[in-house]
Specification:
Function: DNA polymerase III is a complex, multichain enzyme responsible for most of the replicative synthesis in bacteria. The epsilon subunit contain the editing function and is a proofreading 3'-5' exonuclease.
Radius of gyration: 40 Å
Distance between the termini: 25 Å
Shape: elongated
Number of strands: 17
Strand content: 15-25%
GO molecular function: 3'-5' exonuclease activity; DNA binding; DNA-directed DNA polymerase activity
Keywords: Exonuclease, Hydrolase, Membrane, Nuclease, Transmembrane, Transmembrane helix
CATH class of the largest domain: Alpha Beta
Helix content: 40-55%
Oligomer: single chain
Strand order of the largest sheet: 2-1-5-4-3
Catalytic activity: DNA(n) + a 2'-deoxyribonucleoside 5'-triphosphate = DNA(n+1) + diphosphate
Number of helices: 21
CATH topology of the largest domain: Nucleotidyltransferase, domain 5
GO biological process, one term: DNA replication proofreading
């Protein structure tokens, strides 16, 4: 059906021509015939009748036929693109008689879909229960793990892995593991994994961390590999520190032992030279003293190394207080917890022994029957205070206590070793003017949990997707890949204005991912950008962002490489992509921020599918296909990107019905529409 603009133009043209023809004929008859006053009104009626008839017929056709036909076309498009959409308006005009048949077809289709969905839900109930149990297990598992298929595409990752790579845009379902962990040794390990499930371990260097990686073949149909990770940076640093000190200490020990042995042998051979004998005895004494000092250092090193192997763990301060209270009850000392309990990262047994020893020594110094234990949450530290009614401890006394061993055993770690393990110190605070008693304070590492336990994470839609393994192998030639099998990154930008070539810049960049014909709800990129120029007030009126909102954000030179890493091997999708693509191109600064992949434009695809319909803006299409913007998300980069992704998913079935099934087909269709679109 021709577009409404063409029909309207044709109608106005015919009406205008009819009117002009009638007026010309009337003027000619007036000049030639000079009719009487009785006949002149009849002639004018006859002369203007064609124009009135044309106008009336056009108006009637628009109301009774053309508008109902456009409604019918929208209803069919919505039925194909979104069969479960509600709120359909009824047909009117001359198509009103088709309403019962259309309702019958639509209701029958929806009823069939409901029956199929019910059958699928019933058949998948057992699998869903297994999935929920798996997700519940992985939610609480602290070990970061990934499952990949034979092509190294990520099929599953747990919250611990998401937390480990929270600063990495390359983590996501279907993403290549090589983008997340770009190590050549990892690819070689994948290729040489044992099929019997024997694990293979690797130590992978990172920018700031060392990861111990274990790979194990799962033997599944998709050739899956289980990858478990452990951050060993702290353990390696402790081990290297210990080995470095030991490497410096051992040669000195060998030197002193060699010198002592030589001096002793020479001393045994000297019998008639008292002066030489005295010098040798002095040398033996010096080497013995030096050897004793080195042995003491070796002993201290071994004592400290025992604690360096202990891992700091998440500990609830109330649990530590309860354990300490039970120990102090045996000494008839009452412990009272004060303040709000918090989480902290400590070596619980060592810290418990340290506190018990400090209170014991304090009780020996001045009789104490009651102790208050208060935990204060600082910025990055937790301050543990022991308070009592009495005199503060002097710094000289604290220095003596730091050297005390924790246990009456050989090679027992000392108080200063526990403090060093926690990166802490021991302070003495006098009574304050506000009424606080004398205190001993230990600043300890804080936990990211803060003052409350971490909330249980709800299972996420993109928690895992093993159907990704059924997709064809990744290929650089994407032209013939079906659209439903493409990895697509739908993005949107907000800018300081619309004139990008005259200096307007990106202030917000966001994207979401479509993988295996499914929108991954939480796989998003959302970053505000400092444009390093003022944001005009008329732009703020649209997207709501002000200079203050982006003042602390990174510049585009920092954001764009991270976004390029997030895109990975996917293709880009946008609505009115020419604008957003130009915004990216003008901001590109190097190879790490270049976007050479194909770009799909939902605006052009919609125009290709419905060229005769008006309104292909995002708002109009969202209303047409009943796509909802959550409150406050319109004209935000992420909100617009999500709705654009949903729009693309409803357009894909209609494209397939018209033979547009591959990326090459879609790009060719876009090119045709671009040629027809006036610049």
């Amino acid at each position: 059906m021709p577009s409404r603009q063409n029909l309207l133009g044709l109608w106005l043209l015919l009406t205008g021509l009819s009117l002009m023809f009638g007026l010309v004929m009337l003027l000619w008859l007036e000049s030639q015939w000079q009719p009487s006053a009785d006949i002149r009104p009849l002639l004018w009626v006859l002369g203007l009748a064609p124009a009135l008839l044309c106008a009336s017929v056009g108006w009637m056709l628009e109301r009774r036929l053309f508008r109902p036909l456009r409604q019918f076309q929208v209803l069919l498009a919505r039925l194909v693109a979104s069969p479960d959409a509600q709120g359909d308006y009824p047909l009117d005009g001359w198509l009103h008689a088709l309403q019962p048949d259309l309702d019958h077809i639509r209701d029958g289709w929806r009823q069939d879909r409901m029956q199929i969905s019910a059958a699928q839900a019933q058949g998948a109930r057992k699998a869903d229960r297994i999935r929920q149990e798996l997700e519940a297990l992985l939610q609480v598992l602290d070990v970061p793990l990934l499952i990949c298929d034979r092509h190294q595409r990520i099929l599953l990752f747990n919250p611990a892995a998401a937390n480990m790579f929270r600063e990495q845009p390359a983590l996501g379902l279907g993403r290549p593991l090589s983008q997340l962990l770009p190590h050549p040794g990892l690819l070689d390990a994948f290729q040489h994994l044992s099929a019997n499930g024997a694990p293979q371990q690797l130590l992978l260097p990172g920018k700031q961390h060392w990861l111990r990686c274990q790979l194990r073949h799962l033997g599944a149909a998709h050739g899956g590999v289980l990858v478990t990770l452990q951050d060993t940076t702290a353990a390696l640093e402790h081990d290297q520190r210990w080995r470095r000190t030991l490497a410096q200490l051992l040669p000195r020990l060998r030197g002193h032992c060699g010198s002592l042995n030589s001096a002793t042998e020479a001393l045994l051979q000297v019998t008639d030279n008292p002066d030489l004998k005295q010098r040798l005895e002095h040398a033996v004494e010096q080497e013995s003293q030096a050897l004793a000092v080195e042995v003491e250092q070796l002993t201290r090193l071994v004592e400290a190394h025992q604690l360096s192997q202990s891992l700091l763990e998440e500990t609830w301060s109330n649990d530590l207080c309860s354990a300490l209270k039970a120990q102090l009850n045996l000494q008839h000392i009452r412990l009272t917890p004060v303040g709000i309990p918090v989480w902290m990262r400590v070596d619980g047994p060592a810290l418990l022994a340290l506190l018990q020893l400090l209170i014991q020594r304090l009780n020996e110094l001045q009789p104490v029957s009651e102790i208050e234990l208060e935990v204060l949450l600082g910025n990055r530290r937790v301050y543990l205070d022991l308070g009592w009614s009495g005199d503060p401890v002097s710094e000289q006394q604290l220095q003596q206590w730091r050297a005390l061993p924790l246990f009456d055993e050989p090679l027992s770690p000392r108080i200063e070793d526990v403090l060093e393990q926690h990166g802490a110190d021991l302070w003495s605070l006098p009574p304050s003017a506000s009424g606080q008693p004398a205190r001993l304070r230990l600043p300890l590492p804080a936990s990211q949990r803060g003052v409350q336990p971490l909330p249980r994470l709800e299972p996420r839609p993109e928690f895992h997707d093993f159907s990704i393994a059924d997709l064809p192998a990744p290929s650089r030639n994407l032209a013939n890949v079906p659209l439903q099998q493409l990895e697509m990154v739908v993005f949107d930008t907000e800018t300081t204005g619309l004139d990008l070539r005259r200096g307007d810049r990106i202030i917000s960049l966001a994207a979401c991912r479509i993988m295996n014909d499914r929108l991954l709800a939480d796989d998003t990129f959302d970053q505000r950008v400092n444009p390093q120029r003022p944001i005009p007030s008329d732009s703020t009126a649209i997207h709501g962002l002000t200079d203050a909102d982006v003042a602390q954000s990174p510049p585009i030179e920092v954001v764009l490489p991270r976004f390029r890493q997030y895109v990975g091997n996917g293709i880009l999708v946008a609505h009115n992509a020419a604008f957003d693509r130009l915004a990216l191109q003008l901001a590109e600064t190097g190879e790490q921020s270049q976007f050479t992949m194909p770009v799909l434009d939902t605006l052009l695809l919609s125009r290709a599918l419905d060229p005769e319909l008006e309104g292909h803006g995002l708002d109009a299409l969202a209303e047409r296909f009943e796509l909802r913007f959550p409150p406050g998300t319109r004209h935000t980069a992420l909100g617009d990107a999500r709705v654009t992704a949903e729009l693309l998913l409803v357009l894909l079935p209609r494209l397939a019905n018209r033979g547009v099934r591959t990326l090459q087909d879609a790009l060719a269709l876009q090119a045709q529409i671009e040629k027809r679109t006036p610049q």
